[in-house]
Write a structure and sequence with these properties.
mainly beta; two-stranded antiparallel sheet; 1 helix; 42% strand; globular
């Protein structure tokens, strides 16, 4: 039997050229494609055909502590995107598990909206949702 190791500290996350840090406890990043890679059609007589989709769009959710300085930088990127007609808030995305073989990358991503902001007695989290039209993905194992 082989013992493998995963270290969350070895996950590199960069968006818009900003190294993302200050993650909240629990799930701190997720990537989900917006559409299945294939759809299936089955006829009355049972003949089937699958259809390949070309949609590579995806949503990425990053969960940060409210105290993270990264919130300030992402807020500035989002404001820039809203205030400029040329979409100056569009940039690259990279998530790489350096203790494994998982890699997600996109040449262009943007922030879909500002995170819901709450305050309480405890440190809250901020969920930043990014989207891309073309994600390159490899969900690999760990070494």
């Amino acid at each position: 039997m082989t013992l493998r190791t995963y270290d969350p500290d070895d996950v590199t996350l960069v968006a818009f050229g900003i190294p993302i840090s200050g993650f909240a406890d629990g799930t701190f990043v997720s990537v989900e494609f917006n559409e299945d890679s294939f759809t299936l059609a089955v006829g009355t007589d049972g003949d089937a055909c699958r259809s390949k989709t070309s949609n590579k769009s995806a949503k990425m959710t990053m969960t940060l502590m409210q105290s993270s300085w990264t919130n300030d930088l992402l807020s500035a990127v989002h404001a820039l995107d809203i205030l400029t007609p040329s979409g100056d808030g569009i940039g690259p995305f990279l998530m790489k598990d350096n203790s494994g073989r998982t890699l997600f990358a996109a040449e262009k991503c943007w922030i879909t909206k500002m995170p819901t902001t709450t305050f309480s007695r405890e440190v809250e989290s901020r969920e930043w949702v990014l989207e891309t039209d073309a994600m390159v993905a490899h969900a690999g194992g760990n070494t």
